[in-house]
Design the sequence.
């Protein structure tokens, strides 16, 4: 389910302002936290450095890639290249609406090989140790036919004469970060019972995406610090409202529209595990978003009331248990003249 017209217009307006503040494509200097920064390069080309020699074919091809990216990046993909290391590139993809990745930020570090474009670029996903997609591994591996990291038809694999970095990024956004990532797993198909498994997978993905948001705010990638803070400051209200809608069964996970409508006229079933996990991370999200300067008065108040209610409930339970504790007198055995025993149980002392 897509965004409503009003919500979509609002989102586009936010993106336009954000783009003015942070260009989609930019050349930067600091590459100190790039995953491939210290990777040894065998980059000699006819006795020179193929990445620094402007006459080398590799250098010319990478410059062409820069031009393509600068002119054709979609609104939801941002790229940073490095003035002293043209072999490195960092990309950030905003999670698409209508998916369990919505409003999340996903970072990828790329490195061009010295024989580029004969072979595709290496790519590393900043996972924070979380597996939120069958194609994105916790060790940073990105499984994609276009990168030759997964088997595929010949026309799906890297083609040195046609394939580009832009195609790679758009493929990750559209084919990997999709509405039903469960079906990205090899061997899955649209069989009986698979839809329920897909919905359960989406619940877990959304929780992991929320965790990723928190980790990014704690340690944003270099050259994206301001963007990360600005993005979550702008989207905090929408994200937290979506969390509540999912926990309450008012919207299918990943499909909160933000325009006041709900996904179904009846309540949507969500697992208890999702509710428990979401409630445990929700306060962390409110705190992290508040630190960006987001206006979250209602959400902070909601947490305060819930905390007071939980504390009151715990006190009531303890008091009830204490009240139920009873003291009994021992069983009294009496002997009659006829030798018949009588038993009398004394009343419980209050």
Sequence:
């Amino acid at each position: 389910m897509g965004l409503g017209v009003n919500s979509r217009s609002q989102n586009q307006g936010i993106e336009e302002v954000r783009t003015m503040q942070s260009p989609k494509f930019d050349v930067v200097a600091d590459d100190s936290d790039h995953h491939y920064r210290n990777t040894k390069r065998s980059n000699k080309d006819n006795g020179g450095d193929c990445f620094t020699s402007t006459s080398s074919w590799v250098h010319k091809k990478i410059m062409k890639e820069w031009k393509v990216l600068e002119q054709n990046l979609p609104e939801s993909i941002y790229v940073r290249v490095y003035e002293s290391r043209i072999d490195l590139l960092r990309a950030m993809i905003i999670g698409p609406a209508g998916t369990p990745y919505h409003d999340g930020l996903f970072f990828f570090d790329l490195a061009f090989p010295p024989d580029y474009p004969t072979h595709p670029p290496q790519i590393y996903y900043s996972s924070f140790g979380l597996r939120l997609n069958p194609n994105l591994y916790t060790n940073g591996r990105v499984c994609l036919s276009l990168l030759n990291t997964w088997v595929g038809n010949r026309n799906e694999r890297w083609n040195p004469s046609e394939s580009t970095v832009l195609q790679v990024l758009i493929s990750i956004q559209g084919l990997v970060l999709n509405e039903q990532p469960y079906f990205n797993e090899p061997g899955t198909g649209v069989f009986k019972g698979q839809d329920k498994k897909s919905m359960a997978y989406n619940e877990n993905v959304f929780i992991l995406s929320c965790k990723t948001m928190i980790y990014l705010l704690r340690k944003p990638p270099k050259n994206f610090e301001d963007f990360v803070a600005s993005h979550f400051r702008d989207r905090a209200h929408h994200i937290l409202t979506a969390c509540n809608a999912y926990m309450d069964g008012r919207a299918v996970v990943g499909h909160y529209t933000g325009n006041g409508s709900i996904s179904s006229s009846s309540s949507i079933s969500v697992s208890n595990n999702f509710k428990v996990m979401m409630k445990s991370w929700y306060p962390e999200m409110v705190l992290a978003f508040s630190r960006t300067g987001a206006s979250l008065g209602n959400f902070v108040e909601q947490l305060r009331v819930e905390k007071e209610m939980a504390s009151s409930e715990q006190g009531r339970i303890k008091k009830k248990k204490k009240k139920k504790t009873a003291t009994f007198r021992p069983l009294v055995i009496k002997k009659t003249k006829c030798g018949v025993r009588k038993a009398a149980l004394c009343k419980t002392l209050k």
Observations:
- The first strand starts at residue 25 and ends at 28.
- Residues 1-10, 344-350 have pLDDT under 50 and may be disordered.
- DSSP finds seven helices and nine strands in the chain.
